[in-house]
Amino acid sequence: MKPEIKDQLRAIVGEANFSDKLIDLVSYSSDASQHLHRPEAAVWATTAEQVQAIVRLANQEAFPVTVRGAGTGLSGLSVPAQGGLVLDLSRMDQILDISITDRAVVVQPGVIYADLDNALAPHGYFFPPDPGSSKVCTLGGNVATNAGGVKGAKYGTTRDYVLGLTVVLGDGSIMRTGNRAMKSVSGFDLVRLFVGSEGVLGIVTEIILKINPKPRATATTLAVFDDLEDAGRAVSGVMAGGVVPSVLEILGRETLKAINQNTELNLPEADAMLLAETDGYTQGEADYQMERVVEQFTAHHAREVKQAESAAQAAELWKARKSCVPVLARLRPSFILEDITVPISQVAPTLRGVQDIAARHQVQIATFGHAGDGNLHPQIIYDAADHDESERVEAAVHDLFQLAVDLGGTLTGEHGIGLSKAPYMEMEHDPAAMKLMRSIKRVCDPNNILNPGKMALDG
Ligand SMILES: Cc1cc2nc3c(=O)[nH]c(=O)nc-3n(C[C@H](O)[C@H](O)[C@H](O)COP(=O)(O)OP(=O)(O)OC[C@H]3O[C@@H](n4cnc5c(N)ncnc54)[C@H](O)[C@@H]3O)c2cc1C
Known about the structure:
Layout: H1 3-13, E1 18-19, H2 22-27, E2 41-44, H3 48-61, E3 65-68, E4 85-88, E5 95-99, E6 104-107, H4 113-120, E7 125-126, H5 139-145, H6 152-155, E8 162-169, E9 174-178, H7 190-194, E10 202-210, E11 212-213, E12 217-225, H8 228-239, E13 247-252, H9 253-262, E14 272-280, H10 283-299, E15 304-307, H11 311-322, H12 324-329, E16 334-337, H13 347-361, E17 364-370, E18 375-382, H14 387-406, H15 425-428, H16 431-444
Parallel strand pairs: 2-4, 3-4
Antiparallel strand pairs: 1-2, 5-6, 6-10, 7-11, 8-9, 8-10, 12-14, 12-15, 13-14, 13-17, 16-18, 17-18
């Protein structure tokens, strides 16, 4: 990047919000995936006008701009694949309005998920998507990745809560779309187009989100299965059983073993464990739903069903679920965490298919995930320095995606395409859909300056 361009960037954001120091550029070379690429400069923007001026400059001088929230993406999303500028929005972190009457909040993109949740708690409200990274990830990142979490089975994902957006498009124009109204059929749904667009179409500078009243009561239960497919069938049974649990998570044998090796939680050794939570506005409501869930666990041959008797016991169970990624990551030097998602009827065949893939390619795959919405996390643990093993892992990843698509599902339920899954986009999307996505990219970002190299859109 030419020194004159750096001077112009300094003029836009101020000296304190510009850096080309090695330490910052190295920090901005990665996200939570294994992809690495160094930018040439980084800026912290604090207003939409600054973002607009930067995008205009990038068009004029032809340099790439990669937007970044907290950098917790798991697919190389905010890694600047073609260098250029990293535009960090974490300093645009104001909650601008909370309106309980409108059931809406207005936020800047750099607000951290947990900060919004804390601000809503005194009102008895919450913002449901709840990703595992909630203590650090930003709402702008959540919108750009359509983030979801453990409560997806009942409450859906970020997409279900975004009412309106202000976006700086790739050509430098500012677009406001959507509003605080709870419904609208006015024109194309541009809000939905931008949710999950991974910073390739525009830069979100303001967000209107719908919020929900927080349930006051919960019930939590674990069920142990000696057969993985029985657990998968129990998931389908629960979801078809007339109630919707707020959480329905699965932990496979390898995952349970790793948790026991690394914690004091002393979970049962079995082929699978299901963790369920129901919620409601009275304890009776939560308990009634849990009784229906337990009926399905029993009908599908659970060896043991145990209800948490106190909030502390329930918290222990959630601690087990939350520890999955770190305890598995400790087993080998490298890991890849996938998030294939299938129709709920296909959870059991998917679990079996993952085991077959692990055996076929002789790789270690531990599975856990948000089974209640068909979103599974096969975590491949290996040594990236071992060339032979890495080739087998690559083949296994390909087969995992093929499995999900063949069963009527998708490559990614929450972590996005980014760099990791770009080579597989055409496995899921037909030529007409790919052509339309590439056309939309060209219309919104004619000079391909926003997050280039991602989502297989450059062709
Ligand atoms: C331990 C751990 C647990 C996780 N658990 C979950 C989970 O349960 N569910 C889930 O969905 N994800 C999960 N993730 C992945 C990640 O946290 C989410 O994808 C999150 O939404 C990313 O937010 P971020 O602020 O870190 O965004 P970043 O990683 O900085 O960016 C993500 C993408 O969004 C784009 N972007 C960011 N801000 C904007 C903006 N304002 N305008 C336009 N584009 C923008 C970036 O360019 C990039 O493409 C997890 C990650 C980790 C490390």
